[in-house]
Protein 1
Amino acid sequence: MGAALDKDEARFYRCPVMKTIRIGAGAGYSGDRIEPAAELAHKGKLDYLVFECLGERTIALAQTDKLKNPDGGFDPLLEERMQAVLPACAAQGVKIITNMGAANPEGAARAVAKTARALGLEGLKIAAVVGDDVLEVLRAGDFELMDGLGRVATLGNAIVSANAYLDAEGIVMALDGGADVVITGRVCDPSLFLAPMIQAFKWDPRDWDKIGKGVAFGHLLECAGQVTGGYFADPGFKDVANLARLGFPLAEVAEDGSGVLTKVEGSGGKISVQSCREQLLYEIFDPATYVQGDVVADFSRVTFTELGPDRIAVAGATGRARPDRLKVTIGYKDGFIGEGQMSYAGPGAVARGRLALEIVRERLKIIGVNTTELRGDLIGVDAANLSAAPAPAEDPREVRIRVAGRTTTLRDAERIGAEVETLYTNGPGGGGGATRSARPVIAAASTLIPRRAVTPRVVTEVA
Amino acid sequence: MKLRDLAHVRSGDKGDAAQISVICYRSEDFPKIAAALTADVVAGHFAPILKGAISRYEAPQLGALVFVMEQALGGGVTRSLAIDPHGKTLAATLLSLEI
């Protein structure tokens, strides 16, 4: 025995009164790796495991699935993720919270109940949080789109879906009801993590300082591996070990809103002050004004302190009163995008690539392909590096042309890639490796609606 | 000295706006970087894509600057024709700036 206390005991003796919960991040986007969540479920000594899987247009795409299949419309990896973590979570009493319900949280809850039964976990309580679908509210009202895009009505029949960013309330209700798994559609991403803090610590949802602190943890965790060394490494400048086994983060949050970010011991990656600063500011505009459904958070005075390897204390976040209106993402059909690519190598590759781009532009005119927008890139020169920085004096060893255009018909979109392909036998010398694609576009626009127009509701399914 | 020796960067996006954070490795370099990276300098660097306004925020406690460029992503991730519709590759191009 001696002086060696295990970690939990040490924590207990340091903070004999304060309650602490451990929240892990199991996914940072819909296609994220599966095993890091299983590692957290088995070794993270968690109380909650949260999966954030909804991108801007995911619900619109899911809605089109639901129209084809009324039982579908939720995240395609839902069952696989649940199979990977449910047995460990059920055995240890870890509650799962996720927005994988997408366009159909109730259907997702039924699917999870089925998965749980197949794993022998009868009795598991699965709650769906609904109420984010506000398509009818938008149809009945006259709302203005954000970013100067006109009025919602101008999108007319092109609208596929409209979902409000709910706050933490619905998830808190589900946890109050004893849910083991909570499945939502659209909610503010940090609310997925904030809700268990509000519920476990009995926080007043209008204690803006605490809510701001909770949202800071939510924001740091919501992209999972992006705070543990993913989207970060730069060899020689920012080295991160073992990214192939990147460990996902967990937060130990105390009831006063203080806490520590860490990850499972022995997992890959690295949590550092630098990685935390990058993730805190990620997609934030004014660091003093981060508008969320639960609070207007202020991250401008946040501090990170390294307590030990992969243990970073977070302090200094705060907040002020939440907004009266909620953001709504509208998914709408926006025509088609067609694309084609072709490679050129060796001396003169850039000149041959530029010639190829000119030929395709002229060909699209000759054959009458109607594009509302058309672009030609030289991958290796100016496709991703769109800055004004001067190009290196020497030509690259190879380039790849890429032509992409927006059309109103699928047929026209297909003809763009087809024209690139014809360069094989009709274009500059040495063109190889043509690829082509054409796809319908579901675009996203935003508006704001009064908070009172939205009421979250919980529907429970028992496995 | 290049920005890459003094700071690290990250790109994000919201709608058609590109967001870039520039964060000092050492807090004592913050005044130098804040003086060099004006909104005009960054707007000039991204002139080929920037169609709207640029905003610049300072977070000295984090040793960080945040730039928000409106109408810089060709319509945003859901509509853009660009090979990188999120603009995730943008921030790294700043690292070649001389400070």
Note: The first strand of chain A starts at residue 20 and ends at 27.
Protein 2
Amino acid sequence: MPAGVFKETYEADMAFIRYPIHKAALIAAIIALLAAPAVLDRYYLSLATTALIFWVAVMGLNITVGLAGQISLAHAALMGVGAYTVAHAALKLGLNAVLAVPLAGITAMAISVLLSLPSFKLKEYYLAMASLAAQLLLEYAFSRIDPDQYTPVPPEAKVLAGVDLNNPVNLYYFTALVAVLMAVIAANIARSTYGRAMKAVRDNDVAASIVGVDVPLTKALAFAIGGFYAGVAGGLYAIYSVGIGWEAFTLIVSIELLGMVLVGGPGRVVWGSLLGVLTLRTGWTLLESQLTPLLSALGMTAYASAFKYIVLGAVITATIILEPEGLIAVLRRVKEYFRLWPYSY
Amino acid sequence: MSLEEWSNLVFQGILLGVLYSLVAMGYNIVYRVNKSINFAVPQVVLLAAYVSLIVAVAVGSFIAAIIAAVLVSIAVSMALERTVARPLLGRPPVALIGATLGVFYALKGVVLIVGGSRVATIPIDIDYYEVGPLDIATNDVISLAGALPVFASVVILHRKTRFGAAMRAVAEDAEGAAAYGLPVKRLMLAGWALAGLVGGLGSILLAIKTQVSPELEYFAIRALAASLIAGLDSLGGVIVGGIALGLAEQIGSKILDPYLPGIGRDIAFLVLLIVLFVRPYGLFGSERIERV
């Protein structure tokens, strides 16, 4: 047992803010979130907005994969379901895009529950393959709904109660509001009865059923919540975009999302997911903007997307092999070192 | 549709099915020795096909193209065993799924550099023959003649030789096999190499039968579906599963196409979901009994 300050009650151990560093990080994060539009120019603001959107999606996948241990390779397709729901509700029904976002979440949730049915019988590789099959079948459905790969999202549908979401600053604050709300919900799901039931199912589903956990219900719930998050993220993506095409929701995006969960920290729903998005999406975009002049100087501009795949793929594989709990475990080790310093034994 | 059209449809279905089973066998062998699926195979297949195309154009000999494809596939497969699968031994399946998908992602970049997304055919002379009601082309003959001996030798290797018995022992219980003095790690490496060999051969035969294009990636994913339809731990079942899938795809797309244009590519996944609902461990797979 190392030296240091330890929590003595269960409540203290499960609290949101356990150490001074958590408080400091939270305050810094809130200030950064609120001040971002004042500091960042349009390009970086849109980068921040997409990061928030993907954060919502990855939190959902982290609940399905990280908490409940149910592998899903259909998450990008579920995002697509949400995005098409919003686009079509605005186009065909004249519904306000903002009001259509919950609808998008519910539609994706319904399809996700349908996808959870194989998980009652299947595990691991078989389940991964069943969700991969679902992803490709949904891609086929998208290609029938949207053969031109372009469905416009009408700008007049993005105005609610005088707030115009076509303005990037308004859009940023709206996305941030939704993302933070979803993050608070996700953090509480992880601490609730259902969250602990999911962890039990992940660690050993037979043992979980013996102690009285309703395993099929827990699995269905994990898929339902994951699907809802994916649908909301897809809806936000549709509001963010001028028009959507299904090439944004293909298998390779599903792999990216799974990569973000595993790189950030599986089971660490809020901060792990954020770290995964910031590393694999925002981090790469920032790196790419630095890399592009170098590549064009070398005359290798055509290989830019190839480098993206090679670097990110290597990062995903290396992180999984070297750091099973994701990059957030590295942060935790750093935090623990300084918390216990200088008596870290 | 006339009898002649039907018989050609069935023949093409069987031919595709044989190639499906060849690629599916690669997944199967890896699953047997390592209890894991190598999700990177689709990109390895594509990479091998592009390399063989480049070699075939440069050297002008299609034997050289076959050798190149097989060598690339074996090399990548063995490298994956050493750098990805072995460090992950004993970790939960999600780690291996994630890691091989990461390799899938990285290899996609390599494929983009090597081949772009070109569509091309391997340069060989194709003649057409009429045998009864069947129209047979030279490339059909090559793919059948290439695939069947490989099936036979893998099955014989697996069932009749000491090496095959050792591999089956590792598949059954790696720790027990190690206790009997079997070189488990070397056998696993050999398993992955064998999987690479079948995969590479499947890749080049596919390229000869159809063409080299990014579509081969989806073919290999459908082959994984075939392998699951058969059941991951059944070597003989893979052949039946692959041929059943090839037939289902040809006949299904013919029947469904007027209602659902372009469904052909995704029939495999419909069949897979139905099979997994009815028999979760595949048609010929053995059910695992879990203890706590």
Note: The first helix of chain A runs from residue 10 to 14.
Protein 3
Amino acid sequence: MNRFIGFLRKEFYHIFRDKRSMLILFGMPIVQIMLFGYVISTDLKDIKMAVLDHSKDEYSAEIINKITSSGYFSLTDNLKSVKEADAVFKKGDVKLILVFEPDFGAKLIKNTRANIQILTDATDPNMANLEVNYLQGILQNYNVEINSDKKAPFSIQPKTRMYFNSNLESVFMFIPGIMATILMLVSAMMTSISIAREKELGTMEVLLVSPLNPLQIILGKVTPYLALSFINALVIIGMGYFIFGVPILGSFTLLMTETILFIFLALSIGIFISTISKNQQVAMMLSMFGLMLPTIILSGFIFPIRNMPLPLQIISDLIPPKWFIVILKNIMLKGVGIEYVWKETLILIAMTMGFIGLSLKKFKIRLE
Amino acid sequence: MIYKNMDASIQVNNLSKSYGNVQALKNINLDIKSGELFGLIGPDGAGKTTLFRLLATLLLPDEGSAKLCEIDNVSEYKKIRNFLGYMPGKFSLYQDLSVIENLRFFATVFNTRIEDNMDMIRDIWVQIEPFKNRLAGQLSGGMKQKLALCCALIHQPKILLLDEPTTGVDSVSRSEFWQMLKGLKERGVTIVVATPYMDEANLCDRVALIQDGEILQVNTPDEIVEQFGKKLYAVKSNDNYQTLLDLREFKSTNSVFLFGQSLHYTDTKNEASIDELKTYLANKGRSSTVVEKIKPSIEDCFMALSTKSKAHE
Amino acid sequence: MNSKQKVIRVKNMYKKFGEFTANDDLSFEIEAGEIFGFLGANGAGKTTAIKILCGLSYPTSGEINVAGFDVYTERESVKRNIGYMSQKFSLYEDLTVFENIRFYGGIYGLSKSEINFKANDLLKKLDLEHARDKRISALPLGWKQKLAFSVAIFHDPKIVFLDEPTGGVDPVTRRQFWDLIYDAARAGITVFVTTHYMDEAEYCDRVSIMVDGKIEALNTPEKLKEQFHADDMDQVFLSLARKATNVE
């Protein structure tokens, strides 16, 4: 026990004396949450819009008013001719142009139908789609409004409700993703680097020659990161809950248990990486490209898995964070219990066992 | 300690080790006695580090075996790790820990405390104690080595393996380091030191000269010098380098090397004719030539042995 | 001898890091073609001084002229006229012998035909023609060091700085290395060398010994031994270095 405490003390000295480690450990989670929470938002806000109004009557004015007062769009330009559209889009500020046909209001009253044309800058197709959808929604509402006193013989009125995230807050999706990324980073990358550093500096030679056995060395190296990862997980959930209002509908205990399971998995991956890398640089590269990139790209954190081609979907099944994100979303947003996530949990357990087994087999009691 | 009265000898039998195509050690045999200060002397790439790692149970031999304290170092490596002190060639302490933190850590690794072993390390410790709160990375080369030695000694090992402890260390620190090794030897610790510095051979009880994975000779420094064979002459003149070039052309030259302030010369005959030599050099235009018979050093012997073994190939 | 050109002139050179004075009032002059031994214990300030002379760092004060150029204002010219080799940095392990030579020749702006011609010459001299297309990593240490030195003087610099060039090399190769040094010196290249081997100090024309940032002795090996009543340079060095106060 004395040995173990001595080992831990040494490990904490390493961590607290290295500014880079400290930055990754404690700066990274906060920066990432702030980034995803505030900056990288896929919600629409103040999209710059131009109008080409050939009609200029009370109806077109009312519609423009409705659109700008929604908060999603802001009017920046009034065009005189459709020829200007090209130039405006090329300049890049305006993403959307609304065109009213001549005699818009008159046609609407007389013929009961009038045309609006929506032009968008589709260099970012997802955003363009989103903008058009929002705009159509506003126009739809207006339609209903002006027809409210008339009796339409048949009409379907869809009423939608977004389950689990009624305001479509993107931060709800990012908190689980950030959890998975940060825990992977801290647990896997930091442990693999710290073990590889001992190899690089030659201190591993001395430790191996001592009576310490491999298990003691590994436990000594990973325990500090287990503790720090757990603190990080709490910080992330706390920030999500208190700053962004991400709910925790399910059992907090279950959430924490699953988190610890995932930390164990990440640690065992970290140990595995360290056993196959000679120095810090290799460990860093392996963790970056073998873990971080897949975690961000293929885990469903940012890009939806169901839109991926089949081979990538299969690969994403092999990526541990994918399952962890599913579990997190289910517990936090849907509030379900273990009976809905036992499958994913089992997968994580199996993966953990696998990596621990591999590492124990690969960890050398000698230098070769 | 359980191992108090054990025989701390080292036996190496027919040890060979290859990395891919490179044969790092060829059929090494060594018999190091308990309590001996044994030197392993050879240039970089001779195989010293490989031999140390084999002894330290960090590598497995391709062929042959080694016993430390009469215990086989492959099948019972765990036992050996309890009474072995090992200092690798690279400075292998934690640079971001202070002197005292390093020492405390290695004490806990061996399940012991600094206080219980102060006796063993006191002589060395007093020299680094003034800097005990300094980070190890900020120590000078000599100080680092002293700290590393302390850490290797903290569990009172019976056998101490030191891989090039004095490389890159200035000559003041080097001579201090050897003083400490002598002190340790008096405590009955078997010490094996690898070094590329030939002059350090004279500080050992016995030495093995090693080059290209082969042991050229094992003996006491005095015996090695005695077996030099030929008579050795120191030649000096007003221009040593030109004299060197001249002597390379001389018909009776067996070998000639720059050696500090003079040249070391051996003749094809056992005994050289000093007059003939002087006349030759005078004709070449050298003046104030001095030729005298001298006692060879280990370095002379090493060069003679290594050129002989190269010629055999 | 007075007419000989001075290729390094150092006058009252200081280098301070905060409170710590690494180089404390160094003054010396070195002649063209001289082999100058620059000795000192670890931490005596040798590396700091070499960095300044090579134009890699600025001194705190002092007048320093290397190869005819001022180290404050003409660093690029200084660098173009010196060669540098150390035990640590020598050659690219994953390039072949010839690729290394070509690379360094290219850095100093030598033409293709010049590089080819000089490379053949160099390989012949080192007896390395058979290894021309071998990777550096496959060569024994002694060859690497000899090759590294030859590459360092490939562009015919006025001065070559050697930082512990023979560390760990076997005694026979070490002497072959000194053959190369003498050869270069005879061709007029000034050699500025540091070493831990005291026998090598004897091979130098003049030797300076630094203690605690100051040059405590500077003379020919013969004169130094006389001055300190010593049999060899080792004793000279020890009697000076033992006086060191801040060796930590």
Note: The beta strands of chain A are 47-53, 73-78, 96-100, 116-120.
Protein 4
Amino acid sequence: MNDALRILPEIVFTLGGIVVMIADALLPKAANRRPLGWLAVFGALAALAASFWQAQLPAGTAYYGVVQTDAFSVFFHVLIAGIVLASLLITLDAVTSATESLGELFALMQFGAVGMMLMSSAVELLLVFVALEISSISTYIMAGYRRKSVKSPESALKYFLLGSFATSFFLYGIALVFGATGTTRIDAIAAAVSQAVAGAHINPLLYIGLAMIIVGLGFKVSAAPFHVWTPDVYEGAPSPVVALMSTGPKAAAFAVLLRVAYGALPQLHDHWVPILWWLAVISMTLGNLGALRQRNVKRMLAYSSIAHAGYILVAFTALSPDGIAAASFYAVSYAAMNVGIFAIVSHTGGYDDHLTLIDDYRGLAYASPLLAAVMAFFLISLIGIPFTGGFFGKFYVFSAALNSGMVWLTIIGLINSGIAAFYYLRVVAALYSEPTGASPIMAVERPSFPLLLAIFLTAVATLILGIAPGNVLHAAQAAAQTYSSVK
Amino acid sequence: MLTDHILTLITFVPTAGAVVVAFLPRKGRAIQVFTLLVTLATFILSLHLPAHFNSAQRGFQFEENNPWIASPAIRYHLGVDGLSLWLVLLATFLGPIGALVSWSAIKDRTKEFYFLFLLQQTAMIGVFVALDLFLYYGFWELSLVPMAILIALFGPNRGRQAAIKFFLYTFIPSALFLVAILYLYAKAGTFDFAQLQSALAAGSLGIAPQALSWLSLAFLVAFAVKVPIFPLHGWLSDVIQEAPTAMAMVVAGKLGLYSIFRFNLGLFPEQSRAIAPLMIVLAVIGILYGALIALAQIDMKRLIAFSILSNLSFCILGIFCFALAGLNGAVFQTLNEGLTGSALLVLVSLLYERYHSYDMTLYGGLAARLPWLATLFVITSLALIGLPLLNGFIGEFLVLSGSFASHPRWVAAAAIGVILSASYMLWMVQRIFYGRESSLILNRPAPDLNFREHVTLWPMAILMLAMGVLSPYWIRGIQSGVLQFPAVAERQAHGSTYVLMHATPAPPDPAHVTGGGTQ
């Protein structure tokens, strides 16, 4: 029973998903399926509550030591439950036909959340792999959810092919690590490695395994040079799904990377820090330069998410508790602003996201001053202007990096953020420019209640993370304390 | 007590106003009236500062210092000294003026305009009062955003290009500036200005001299772009042309100059000294280059833009000669430029509202038709040229006399700039107001200043005279701030050349203090 409490949020989401699927099957074919979405929202709320509740559990493992609840896992559980909650609200706004096969979508979002949550609490690499697959497979299906559109299935297929390729890298990496250390448990790996380091004999398979794990996870967080799928997938997938998959699985994959790097292989930091250093530089640079050339907002945000993955990787190189806390904090602030902006992109994009060119946003301020203002706010946060979550995240990341002497990485990163300002600003300028004859104001439907709720929650979160980040910061720092390997 | 948080109030009343503006109805004048009241209230609150400022006391006054975030150690630390006191007042004084000048110029999207306008007020005041580098950087960056958006929204022709140019010019150096701040934090473990200052002065941080030079350079470049200093002025004329008047008034000058004073002189005195020869050369080039380009303009706004460049370069000259009079003059000149430059921009915008052109060759003979406008235009021009009894004279005189002892040749060259400024200003006045009445004037009868415009302009004109006649009142406060700088204090200690001016405080004279108030 105690063991079950340690995976309570996962259980809640699983039950929520099953309830939605059964209800979907029982409902007559022609019935309105939107209420199922509200059912899922309640599931997410319950999971959120369960995640918060877990904070009072003493840190410890369950199920023969494969799952660990600690400040770190609770931090990411809360984040993921929040992301799924907001994404469900956005989906409720975006579905046009009430009789589409919505039941599956709502259920899959919850099942995917189970995988993401488990990724952040698993301390057994095989369970991590299973969790990764649960999360990935739900995402592949969701990306192709709009069956009648051309782009959506294409996006799903690309995502699936490249994604499963990357997952196999990850699995192969685990196998090699097992070959080198004789275990797949995080703590046991750490012990075996420190023994090997003490004996000055490290099995070279370990290095290859580490590299393959980084490749697999690098794909999941869309770090360059493993990023090529991102723009196409984000462009084709339905926007509410992109809101989820650009933040949730990414946060979970970063959690795994933190566990592997700082939990299992801290002794090998001489080897993985340079790799992540380069991944960070390439991601930031390619992401920002790529985004400069985009005319489609969804593609632009895809490149921007590559760049943001790079910023988070900067924090990894700090090798300090502040670095871990900064990476975790950044994952939260990125989730808040990115889910928020996709809520608006989803609403204004219309059916099948056909209105997502930057030019389509011209004069949105005239059609809907509220949406334009909030979108501008999210863009400003993405640029990293002070008093927003985006700024504090960036500030904290680079502060941690500089504290560890990463001067050049900081300079490269902050110059990158200067370049990034350009393409975000282009959208802000479009929002507020007067509509011309060639590009009339986009017709914007009145935002529905769930959308307003989603926007409100994400905007408030972005603002609070910028002006009063104390609580989240404290939680992130407590999460970082679970890694005794760094001081 | 409310007065314990006077700086917080002054800084954030505009923000609170902006939030209210977001909920006011778009129709009618509610937004304008409300904004005017908010800016007036801010100004009245800020009058508390000079009334209770003690210029005999060194260090910061009206301080508020509370922890904000535990780790990283960020504090909410505000305070003013003689350096920032009058700059805060200038910012709050220009608030109502900006609201009034936008009254009829901004017709659509008023909610967006006034919301961002008030946010800009907070950002500017915040820059002057923040004493924690993190907080300071927050306001510094925040000051870019409303400005850039307003230029993009309201620029008549190429607003978007000008806005993006402005933003990138200022944002990328700011990124390097942030690196420097983070580096200091990594070494010192604090963002607090006073602690950093003493730690750097004691040399206890273990930063290599070369690294210190780079740090000071990162600070200086970010500020120099914002001033702007030649050759980083590329954005200025476009922005002045495209920005709404209320924004063009505040875009250049005081923020950057104040920051050079506070941080480059305050934190990096030796590095500032090392780079001074270069800055003096750039300042003199800026003075002459700006003035010469201004001479060649026929567009009034571009002329003003280059005259601003020229005048601001005087401040740089005053700063980097490190003489007390020059430093006093530089601060005073910063105030002058804020005041006179704003007045000129307002006047030109009034002309534009009447005749829809900035091309001065189309004007002529306006003095007879618009006598009040002409009068105020002439007063402002004379103040800018540096006519004795008006404020510009004091500033220029202090700068030139203060720096003459150490750099006679460069200062002699800079003095040519004074002559050139007289040429282009008087030429502009002559073209617009005298001579034959042009067809533009004849075809478009326009009224003279109305009540609102009088209310906008006269306070500025009176202040120009007051600052010219009663300069000791201002200089006294300024000097109390200037004397704190290590660079100046050091000079004093060595007893080397520092010129005491007639304008340095005579024994306190109560009549001046009451008579020369800021109203």
Note: Confidence is low (pLDDT under 50) at residues 493-519 of chain B.
